[in-house]
Every structure is written in C-alpha cells, then in structure tokens.
Amino acid sequence: DIERDEQIYNSYEKLTSQLPIRRDWSPFDLQLFQSFWIPTKFVPPCMAIQAHFNPRPSDILLVTSPKSGTTWLSALSFATLHRHSFSLSLSDNPLLTRTPRQCVPLLENFFFHRTIPNLNVLPSPTIFATHLPFSLLPESALRCRIVYLCRDPKDTFVSLCHFLESWMISSTEHKSTTQGFDLSKAFQMFSQGTSTFGPFWDHVLGYWKESLRSPEMVLFFRYEEMMEDPVNHLRRLGQFMGCPFSMEEERDGVVEDIVKLCSFDNLRELEVNKDNKGSLEEKRPPASSFFRKGKVGDWVNYLSMEMAEKLDAITNEKLHGSGLSF
Ligand code: A3P
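The joint structure predicted for all components is written out below.
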C-alpha cells in the first residue's frame, strides 16, 4: 500500500526534523534519537523498524557498532548457515560473486526506500545485519537469536575514520568534500559519544548486559578474540545459530574451510569486493572500503598516546563494574 507507506514515512520525517542534530561530523548529519546518534537518513528507517519489523523466531540478527567486523561476521554466518546448499571451495558459493553485505543485507536498508517491506517472504531463517542499539530494538526482535560483535574502541574509531574518508573520496556527487578527513575533530566527537550509532560504549553495554541476562538469546563476541581463534568462535556461532558442525564435518575440516573462505585475505582479493564506486547520497559505500587492513591494534599508527589514553580512560569509566573491558 504505497499511499499508506508514504503517510507513515512523512510522519517519521516530521518527527525526525524535531530531533537534536550535529552537523559537524563529516560527511553525515547525526540526530539524537532515543539517546543514540543516528545518521539523519536512517532515523525514519529506525522508527519504521520499531513499529513494523516483525521477524520470525528463526531469523538471526547480527549486531555491531559500525566498523566492528560486520562484514566478517556476515560472511561467516552466511557460509555456515548455507553450507549444505553451496560448496565451500567451488565457484557456486555466493560469497565469491556477491559482497558479504549483499549476502546479509543491513536491516535498516530494507526500510530505507519509504516502504514497509514484508520480510517474511524471505527464506526462513534469514540473517539480518543491523547497527541498532539494544534499547531501540522492537520487542518482536527479542524473539530472534542475536549475535553481537564488538571491537576495541581505538581500532573501531580509526577504522571508522578511514571508512568515511574513502567513502567521501569514492562518491562522485561529493568531490568538493574530499579535502581530507579531520581526525582531531572526529576524535573529539567520538569521545563525546557523537558517532554513528553512538555513544559507542552505550551500544556495547546494552548488548553486553543482555548477553549476561539471556546468554541463550544473545551471543557476545569480540573482534580481537575472533582473530585469535576463529575456528573455535565459528564452532560456537554454528551451535548458537542452530546448525552445529557434526563430527563428520569436523573431521572433514569444514570449520577451517569456512574460516579460510571468509578470511580477510581471501575476501579482499575477490573482484566483487574490489569495487571502489560509492555514493554518499544513496548511502552506498564502495565495496572496497569494507576491506582495509583487518588487523588488531592498527590504532598505534594513527592515534597519539594522549588520544589513546583519553579513549582508554573513557572506556574504563563507562564500562566500570560491568565485567567488560577492552
Ligand atoms: P579496518 O579498517 O581496521 O581494516 P565493518 O565490517 O563492521 O564495516 O568493519 C570493517 C572492519 O573489519 C575493517 O577494519 C575491515 O578491514 C575489517 N574486516 C573486513 N573483513 C574482514 C575479515 N574477513 N576478517 C577480519 N577483518 C575484516
């Protein structure tokens, strides 16, 4: 019903226009919606998700703060869930010809085009990626299993800066905004909590606390630990998603094969993931911007000691007493 959807989105846009806005975090305006800073164009989709997202209990949500490893987790989950439909080594695997984001689309993007989609026509189960904070999820989403992946805020911040910069450079409509990225301003904003789907710490804490309350519904992963032992994490992921690896699969090395297929080095070399055309206007980052270095601790190359200490101090203060630390 196009007319009904139009009316719904018009009312969301009206509400959005009344929210506090920060214009100085380049290149997107952020708006404060229910205590989180959401890119303006994503606010109406978030409202629509809250009111109209009605997933099946079999569906799976992959949640991250942007740049915490969404792409990697998407590839691993997709390859694991569909390992009986596609071969892992032959060319029929969708991950060889489509980006991980195309295989596991962002939930927000389904609601981006001023329509209320019927997602229950998708195959069951469907995996959705999302950046929505826990407190913004509709109650219906709590029926689904949720995998949350977080990453050291220093690396997340550095990754975010590079991502936004390469997106700006790639975007044909915004050639005038490519004078370079203002790292110190971005740092100030990030530290204050004014970052995409931030405050970063509140985002992590929401899911951390829920994972302690309901470990059977929320699986909490960390990028650094996954890098250290991807095979064991993939085993836990398969188990959690309801498709554990059998003894036969273990013996045949299926877990290792999936880890290899989804590794940074493998995915980055694929033609589909090398595409460097993007658009800020259409909220379409270039595929290549999701594969930069894939390293733990790369922040040392970009942040001064003072900046690192400041972020660490904020992290310690915010996470104090939660049982979580970076
Ligand atoms: P860096 O910028 O530090 O390299 P997201 O997918 O949430 O947007 O996060 C992107 C970050 O994850 C980038 O970090 C990117 O390089 C890294 N990444 C992408 N694919 C990966 C993979 N298969 N394994 C490990 N890291 C990966």
